[in-house]
Design goal:
It is built from 14 helices and 8 strands. The protein has an 8-stranded antiparallel sheet with strand order 4-3-2-1-5-6-7-8, sandwiched between helices. The radius of gyration is 27 Å and the shape is elongated.
Length: 408
Amino acid sequence: MKMRRIAVLMHRYVGLAMAGFLVIAGLTGSTIAFNHELDEWLNPSLFERRSDGAALSPLVLIAEIERQDTKVYVSFFEFEEEPDHNAIAFVQPRENAETGEPYEVGYTQIFVDPETAEIAGKREWGAIGLDLPHLISFLYKLHYSLHIPGAYGLLIMGIVAILWMADCFFGFYLTLPQIRPFWRRWMPAWKIKHPASAHRRNLDLHRAGGLWLWPVLFVVAMSGVALNLPQQVFRPVVSLFADLSPDLGDLAEERMKIEYGTPPVMTFEDALAAANTVTAQHGIAEPASMIWHPRTYAAIGVGFGEAHGAGLGPSWIFFDDHTREVIHVQVPGTGTAGDTFMELQFPLHSGQIAGLPGRILISASGLIVAMLSVTGVVVWARKRRGLGAGRLIRQAGAARRTEASPAE
């Protein structure tokens, strides 16, 4: 079988298999490129603060949240909030001392007035729901996991991203002319003919749209693999070409095997004080901006820099929440070339690497991904109908010739 025939079949059937997934990923990705802004716009009662006085310190706010609901503990808190916004914390349920099971609290995110610590609202981030408080986080989770429980949704979308990477090459190859002059015959593939029939316009949108945005689409597909299957696929492959230092995923796998059997002894206050004593030796100049306590890792992390700003992302220092020892330090851009390549994946996928222009590009590309999937299915359907009609015509012609032939 010739190479072009193989490419045609692969592009056709891989594209059909992915089409529904890519429509969902494209439309949701286009939206969540601006998830923070849209969430704030849709839910002013959660985000906009009512007071105008001086804000309490982050540690006091954390203590107030836990005092007001003793069934939860704060697992993540970001310090750098806009002056006119409420403070936002993520919480996890504590264990019920009588049953040993976590309390059922019905929410994972809480909004509090930074001056009074009054609760402005609560919600379960990522819950299935189209009501305004849950809409954006629902779309965010739908984007990367389809809301399928466990790791299955991540696995499915990771496999789709792998197929998409391969299909980028099949589609590109099929635009290349088979005869010379090469450039003159390839140029029409980059254009959308006007005026043209609906079929020709659909084909041009599919082909030219894929060509013009090919680098962006390939990078989004590749980073999708990195984000959904980092330990299973992406890091092992990258490690074949570049040295990689242990990352947070490696830390998580190692730390989840540890069983101390006693509650953590390190507090957020302890972690902030300890982090501030070691920032200089790791070249961290930004102030602490967030704190995270993933208890399943028996660790507390202190973050430095903007969580959603342009660039490679924030730096982190992690401590063992029982021994208080530093167990992991991550300063973007200071490791090996492989480390930096890994750190690039989320900023590239979200567009944050280039700030607002990058996010606009990612948002637009999400719509184009959905368009390419739909136009690809339409191209296939029209060709299938054409092949079916051609088969019927040939069968009818054969029947007429049989009737017209003299009997033996």
